[in-house]
Write a sequence for this structure.
């Protein structure tokens, strides 16, 4: 998300940067688009949801829940079963096994809203009892995000930091507004920061906390928060996300 890796690589003391995502090709394409070639950059592609692919189980769940005779009770059982298996697979996984060593700085770029939930929600939109199932999925995502966060924390050195960025709200832009921005940009000017913070606070007062905010609240159970940052992330001429970031570490006197 618009991190200037070129600048990061040049920083004194940076020995290596490891980029992770399930989508190996997307990382490679981005690196080639950004014309970034450095021995210091490594790519490690793996699934944050565990070694056992969840795709087959997810397809089975979607088929089951779309059967006409599914009662609330059956739906709860099937969803419980799916998430139990998934969590077990996540608990068995250590991200450290893939990336080798711990880091002085880990950066999480929007993932809480991207992992699994949107896929499932989309696949189940036409299911009978969708509203009930949606509530159930959101409850279950709490455990998935908690497990993800615990695994990330294990990848940080004792004196290391985590910069955790999360998209909280998506705003629709009028063409006129959006046409000012042709590329995805993270706007960190002070005016954008204050505006974003106010919009997020007002939104959460009215609608409550979504998965994006939950991820940040949850990580504070494991690390100490030092500073909060707010950004406007204009993704395309028509779409803008309001992003919150936290800088965290293991102890308060770092
Ligand atoms: C909003 S994008 C952020 C991409 C990238 N970090 C960046 O900043 O440009 C969310 C990313 O999450 C990745 N993702 C979704 N589910 C994942 C999973 N289970 N394991 C690993 N990566 C996943 C997607 O492939 C996608 O690239």
């Amino acid at each position: 998300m618009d991190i200037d890796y070129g600048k990061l690589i040049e920083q004194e003391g940076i020995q290596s940067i490891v980029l992770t995502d399930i989508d190996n090709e997307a990382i490679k394409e981005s690196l080639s688009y950004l014309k970034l070639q450095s021995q210091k950059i490594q790519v490690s592609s793996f699934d944050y949801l565990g070694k056992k692919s969840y795709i087959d189980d997810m397809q089975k769940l979607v088929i089951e829940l779309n059967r006409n005779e599914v009662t609330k009770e059956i739906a709860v059982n099937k969803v419980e079963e799916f998430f139990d298996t998934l969590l077990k697979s996540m608990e068995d996984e250590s991200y450290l096994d893939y990336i080798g060593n711990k880091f002085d700085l880990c950066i999480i770029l929007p993932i809480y809203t991207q992992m699994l939930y949107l896929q499932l929600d989309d696949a189940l939109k036409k299911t009978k009892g969708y509203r009930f199932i949606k509530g159930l999925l959101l409850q279950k995502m709490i455990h998935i995000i908690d497990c993800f966060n615990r695994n990330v924390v294990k990848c940080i050195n004792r004196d290391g930091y985590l910069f955790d960025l999360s998209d909280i709200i998506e705003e629709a832009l009028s063409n006129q507004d959006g046409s000012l921005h042709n590329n995805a940009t993270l706007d960190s000017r002070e005016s954008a920061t204050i505006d974003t913070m106010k919009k997020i606070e007002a939104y959460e007062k009215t609608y409550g906390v979504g998965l994006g905010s939950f991820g940040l609240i949850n990580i504070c159970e494991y690390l100490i928060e030092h500073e909060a940052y707010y950004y406007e992330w204009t993704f395309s001429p028509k779409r803008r996300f309001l992003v919150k970031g936290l800088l965290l570490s293991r102890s308060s006197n770092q």
In short: Residues 1-45 form one domain. The chain is about 45% helix and 25% strand. The pocket of S-adenosylmethionine is lined by residues 1, 21-23, 26, 47-49, 109-111, 114-115 (CB under 6 Å).
